[in-house]
Write a structure and sequence with these properties.
The chain is of the alpha+beta class. The chain folds into 3 domains: about 150-425, TolB, C-terminal domain (Neuraminidase, 6 Propeller); about 430-575; about 590-665, Immunoglobulins (Immunoglobulin-like, Sandwich). It has 10 helices and 41 strands. It is elongated, with a radius of gyration of 30 Å.
Amino acid sequence: MHYKNILFLGIGIILAFHGNSQRNCEKADRYFGQNQFEMAIKYYQADIDSRNGKVSERALKGLADSYRIVGEFEKAEETYRRILKKKKKDPQNYLNYALSLKSSAKYAEAKLQFEEYIRMKPDDPMGEVYLKSCDSAQVWLDATIGKDVRNISALNTGFSEFSPVIVGNTLYFSSSRKGSTQALVSFDGGGELHRLDIYAVNLNSIDQNDHEVVPVVNVKELNSPMHDGSVCFSPDRREVYFTRTVKGDRDEKSNNILNTLQVFYSRLDSGGKWSKPESAFVFNSHKYSTAHPCLSADGKTIYFMSDMPGGFGKTDIYYSVRQSNGKWSSPRNAGREVNTFGYEMFPFISDKGILYFSSNAHPGMGQLDIFQASYENGQWSHVVNLKPPVNSIGNDFGICMDGTNNQGFFSSDRFNGKGAEDIYSFCNEEPLELSFRLDTLVFPDKGIFDELKYKLVNEKDKSEQELKSENRQYYIPIERGVPYRLVAKKNGMSVNKINFEYTIENHQLKLSLKSSSRAVRVDGKLFWLADSILSKTIVELADTLGRKKSSRLKTDGSFHLNDIIMPSQLYKLQSFVPDTDHMTILPANTIPVNGTIHYHDGAIVRAAVSICQNQKVIATLQTNEAGNFQGVVLYDPGLPCSIEIKAEGYKSKTLTAGASLTDLKIELERL
């Protein structure tokens, strides 16, 4: 991992723990210190080649460390072995060799080296952590072979992309890609150096096939000549908090000026512009860092990382509470269940109040792993490793969840990535939610997370259609009494088939459904019921064994069955009113439509007004002598709707309907 690439976000400080030598060759050391490890490798290797077999220890050490940092662990192993042949008494070399072996998933070999390190340096608690994690990592790895998460390759570049956060349909993240703020200095023609900037991308634009690079936007109002990143937003999305590097105090020992990290703040004005960022906390400091902010769902608590004095380890997770005056309280440590003697960073608090964070000291797979903790009895506890495939033998950090808490994004420098750090998506396998509404099947498109695509097969005429979503939802018109097969595919292979048939028979909703491989859930809405019987109507689900589960309709006519429809079983669903012989009286529950069609101040007579949903005309009305039209339609306000207007001598017009279809005023243009 390119630690120095994201030094300002806290990971780079792990280098000191891993034994970064300060005796490297001058040129190579310069590149090493400026995050250009490939160039450092080139100069270390050149130094070794020029010595006619008399290899310097500092060149080998620098070369091994550089290989380890960029993830070339096999080369790092080989180089550390050469070092150990020359200098067997340095425990740091055994530790680095063991870490390289562990990062290559060679856990049995790594254990031997960690044991040697513990024997040589028993006072380091990290030795035992690494040793124990070798056993658990191997078990977790074996249990998840064949599983994977998704690299968002259409978003990632050869540079760093990390710390994603979901805000509505937008994904914000940090990146050093081309187009970021360019650093003012470069050494020995080593090429351009880019700062980390904050970027944004529309989730709907991410190509599910990864064929195209998606357009991203540099949020220039928040970015500066320094590093900027790791953002979070208030619930109303009008406040943003993020990390920025600032010029710190001079180090007394080295006499160098050290950069520190601070949390900055900006607010959206009435014109939609972000204000000039300013320090968010009175406890921001030039002597220590605060970074990686994350707001709770109600916006009243902010979590962050800091190495301020008084913590339990190298960096700890802290939080502050918003006061009545809008200011943040003094920092409060998240406690020793979360924080260790190592590094805890990148906190994220989900909508359900689960705290996620990364740590190198809780037992894990590789270096930084992602963990979760719950808040009980006034403290954070029950720390759990998320395990593979989210965690890997690399560094995994910067997780975010969407509102479901079952899917989201994170960043990692694992093998086979596109750049230094990449953004990945993940999705816990949950039953697919199928919703039947007014001859329309609706279900979510999670392709960005699970890579699933769908096609619909009409079993009556054997026609097929590849489905396309709209705003990450599928809306599929279906015919009553026609058997269908919904096929879920991943990488061209079928992973599930759902056979269903939906009908209205004798004024009664009926649905038969069978899933081949994966569980599903069913809900929907009955639009034809009169208000007087809504409270009485029951929707019943029965399996092949006759076991029944039922759900009473809500006041808006909707139903939701929490029961899981298991694979390989035929289920039948029906609606009925008790004590009416399983018959539902279905008087039309229609919605009024009215409005005016005009040209300037004049009415347009005999204009045709078509109300359309899901590519079907559900009602056609006509304007009178005054240009007015009115009527009633069977209309589902939860589905996309359009209005098409045609009149002789005028340009046709199509409008997207809003929540209401009343008091519409539409102006046409002459041909």
